[in-house]
Amino acid sequence: xxxxxxxxxxxxxxxxxxxxxxxxxxxxxxxxxxxxxxxxxxxxxxxxxxxxxxxxxxxxxxxxxxxxxxxxxxxxxxxxxxxxxxxxxxxxxxxxxxxxxxxxxxxxxxxxxxxxxxxxxxxxxxxxxxxxxxxxxxxxxxxxxxxxxxxxxxxxxxxxxxxxxxxxxxxxxxxxxxxxxxxxxxxxxxxxxxxxxxxxxxxxxxxxxxxxxxxxxxxxxxxxxxxxxxxxxxxxxxxxxxxxxxxxxxxxxxxxxxxxxxxxxxxxxxxxxxxxxxxxxxxxxxxxxxxxxxxxxxxxxxxxxxxxxxxxxxxxxxxxxxxxxxxxxxxxxxxx
Length: 336
Fold this sequence. Notes:
5-stranded mixed sheet; alpha/beta
């Protein structure tokens, strides 16, 4: 058993491909070894915070300079930054509700698989004796998934923030995470509408009356998606207003649920998400179980060298992600 208070922490524990600092630390100091002890429930990183008596939240949280009391404790600072940013991403997260799969890669080149069954393929007709079964063709995309690097630059000197309480500093880092999450969502929306570069844009359906959304338009979307399930919808602010103003939203179970809990569900039972970044009068409807794949190159990337050396100014925090369509016809766009 490796005791948490005897582990040597250093810069080299960062930058190990898909093995993050936390994963490497957990390998050196497995949490399962602490079952039945006072440290049960803490992960390896949290035990290191306890080792150096660093409090990152609460009324008695320490200041930023507490991380730099020793060279070992300084090595914890980039992971603290990454975790705070990740918390912000999770709080603003919509992606988890709209992607079918998340793939983490160690690199920047990736080709997704794609399957485009014909209408005849979807019927799964009975196979007569001695005849071949219908085939489903799965192949890799013609073009690589386009990965985008999204992030923010910390612009503050160590002298300016060293006396800042960590709980307040965490709020700022969470906001950076929220910015990244919103931009990743915008990238995902762009792929849903325009495709991932493999000639697979979503089919557009025109609303019955320009400038408005009716219940009949939603039924048309539901019908167009068949045999896929219409279980997720994304709408801009104007589209949300039009949907929530429908009489069906006021009188149906969907409206009652919205009034009581704030959960926005359409009259057809699909989960509705507000996405202000959608341009134009578009409503995106899709089957979240088979429409979109999220590809992520590693974890949150921080300039760990700069952060450990107290060179906070111009230290970047970023995440490299991309999106690919799995079943292109599992997405439809209503233009109103």
